[in-house]
Amino acid sequence: MTTQPVSPAESPVQDREVTPPAMRKLEVQTATATVPPSDSTPRSPSPLELGHRSRGRTIKDVIARIVMWGSFGLAMVPLVWILFTVISHGVGLLLQSQWWTNSQRNINSTDVGGGAIHAIQGTLLQAAVTAVIAVPIGVLTAIYLVEYGRGAVARAVSFMVDILTGVPSIVAALFIYAVWVTTFGFQRVGFAVCLALVLLMLPVVVRSTEEMLKLVPNELREASYALGVPKWVTIVRIVLPTAFSGIVTGILLGLARIIGETAPLLILGPYTKSIATNLFAGPMPTLPTMINQDRTELGIAAAVERMWATALTLIFIVLLLNLVGRLVARFGRVRS
Amino acid sequence: MSSITGASVASQFPGDGPSGRSNIEGDSATSRRIGDRIFAGASRGAGLLVIALVTLIGVFLLAQAIPALLKDQASFLTSREWAPGGDAPRFGIVELLWTTVASSAIAMVIAVPFGVAVALFITQYAPRWLKRTAASLVDLLAAVPSIVYGLWAALTFRSLISPVEGGLQDVLGWFPLFSPTGISGGTIFFIGIVLSIMVLPIVTALSREVFDQTPVTHKEGALALGATRWEMIRTAVLPFGRPGVISASMLALGRALGETIAVTFLVSKLADNTPWTFSLFNGGETFASRIANNAAEFDTPAKTGAYIAAGLVLFVLTFIVNAIARVVIERRKAFSE
Q1: Nearest CB neighbour to B146, from listed A154, A262, A326
Q2: Is A31 on the interface with B (CB under 8 A)?
Q3: Fewer beta carbons below 10 Å: N end or C end of chain B?
């Protein structure tokens, strides 16, 4: 990709500058080709006549345009439908203050409402611990790949990151189960869930950090070396700060991915209705397991409402993380 | 994926070794200072840890699956039974494999053309004001947690698909893939459709990236030769983006194969001794949903081993798919450098 004249970061800009005139020309062509039909029937067989675009080609072009617009429209249907379903069923409980302050303790499935603070706390706590483990490993791995790695080892690391990207969450959970419960004989606790989530978050952090480190101009590194700064100080003081916002974005997107994961929780993180913040003992409630709990009682209106409200809370947190990640990306991108 | 800054002086030193990677990766500036050695060691250690983790996943799953497999009284690869408990466990994966692969295949058949079309829309057709919004909306689809997809599909989307399934069975019932089964709701067909919605943003996001990288000169060349916009896409954008689309599809396929919770909400468990059928309107469980549904049953090592063996097959399956994706990307790199 190095010989490519337009670098990907700039290409959208160039694209915008260059293509519209060409496209406009095309539109003019289309207009002349389609508007005067009388012109095409008595066509003179002059050799200079370049001819008009055949009707078949025009029709194909129009069909393609309709298909593209249509596919986009169709792809939006599930999005709107899902958001509408979740919001319309769940927003009622979210507007009550007890949703954000109480737990489900002493609330039977037939009782209306209750709170979700226990599950929100559990989810955020597990996400935080996961990040604390995954971020240093992920960032260091990315530094290795970009700044140090060469040859077979680096290729192997890069390949393994790709494989890790594709590991299904249920397999990650089974692996941790095989280590944590079967081999070491520990209980199924919150920390085991975090370990499984680390496996899922790690590749996201590595890949996004790697991309960002590659965006840091080499001139910065070279200037630093020329001043006699050691390599590791260059990385810590020059490279990482330059790429900082991009790295933060990657971390937030990685968090957004793991917060919605349910499979590891099913296998490793039993649910409880009370507030529990001990990662190393006892069950720990989270939003996905709370949804799963209420889902078993679809006949009870109160449980169903609670289920949708929990789902909405989960979407809300995930979207918030995504949004913050995007804002950080937009306002602090690497300038070369 | 690509180096923005162009050639690095550091990489032109002769002692650099035959690194076929982009210039920016690795320079020879590491000194023997203690700080440098610690930092280089730590980052190398993190890299090696990643290798170790993936290896350990394989090793641990294998180690715990083998004892269970040795006790298995039925053929693991060809049996349809699943009774992992007791003294004479009998379990086989052929049904799980069929459901998993068939539903993922349906998801691919729908999601790949659709995802590519949406990516083309965003990169080639959308007016500028819509471009960024459209991209964010598709990303939003990816941000919805899979458990929410599961709820939505099980509780509202199903009512839309059931009549479609009925209609297909009536019209195409003579064809083995569409033969009627009397099951409605959690069919392979329905799971495939839900999976296709879930992986569509993956296909779109990655395809979009490569389509955006199509050299402007290629596109202008096609247009200057009188191509319509569609012809320009067909002759310039799609050939350039094909490897990207293939690897995007592979990643999406990996995601579809391993999708757990949404599928668990949807599947309908088949009763024992249900006659075998190739119909897509049959029920059945995937690897992931079988494991997730029975997480409470992990009491004896032998029983757990059976589920771990199923998980191992899933791991191997996704490993192969992702490795293929990786090879495709590598080949693309080789061609474009």
Answers
A1: A262
A2: no
A3: C
Going by C-alpha positions, the residue among B182, B184, B191, B179 that lies closest to residue B164 is B184
Residue A150 to residue B19, Cβ atoms within 8 A: yes
Q: Are residues A84 and A202 in the same domain?
A: no
CA-based nearest residue in chain B for residue A55: B228
Q: Which run of H or E residues covers position A22?
A: helix A11-34
Tens digit of pLDDT for each residue in A102-120?
Answer: 888 888 878 887 889 999 9
Number of domains in chain A: 2
Mark whether A260 and A186 lie in a shared domain.
yes
Put simply, whether B299 touches A (Cβ < 8 Å) is no
Up-side HSE of residue B24: CA atoms within 13 Å toward CB? 24
Task: For residues A190 and A157, state if they share a domain.
Answer: yes
Q: What is the pLDDT of residue B21?
A: 38
Interface of B with A in 54-93 (CB under 8 A): 54, 56-57, 60-61, 63-64
CATH number at residue A153: 1.10.3720.10
10 Å CB burial of residue A272 (0-12, 13-18, 19+) is buried
A71 → closest Cβ in B117, B257, B291: B117
- Report yes or no on A17 lying in a domain: no
In terms of residue numbers, what domain contains A306?
117-331
One domain, residues A317 and A196: yes
How many residues can be counted in chain A? 336
Interface test with B, best of A174, A222, A257, A271 (most B CBs within 10 A): A174
Residue B26 zone, left/alpha/beta (φ > 0; ψ -120 to 50; rest): left
**B213 in contact with chain A, both atoms CB, cutoff 8 A:** yes
Residue A218 to chain B, least CA–CA distance (Å): 6
Q: Which residues pair with B82 in a beta bridge?
A: B91
Q: What is the pLDDT of residues A177-209, one digit of tens each?
A: 999 988 898 888 999 999 999 999 999 999 999
Distance between start and end Cα atoms, chain A:
18
Residue A98 to residues A39, A93, A111, B230: CA-CA distances in angstroms? 74, 9, 14, 56
pTM comes to 0.83
Identify the architecture of domain B90-336 in CATH.
Orthogonal Bundle (1.10)
Q: Please report the pLDDT score of residue B78 as a whole number.
A: 83
Q: Which among A7, A22, A23 is the nearest to B4, CB-wise?
A: A7
Contact residues on chain A for B324, CB-CB shorter than 8 A: none
Q: Which of A21-25, B1-5, B169-173 has the lowest mean pLDDT?
A: B1-5
pLDDT per residue as tens digits for the range B77-95: 888 888 887 778 888 888 8
> Can you tell me the distance from the alpha carbon of B322 to that of A48, in angstroms, rounded to the nearest whole number?
55
Chain B nearest-CA distance from A334, in A, is: 11
Query: Does residue A111 lie within any of the structural domains?
Result: no
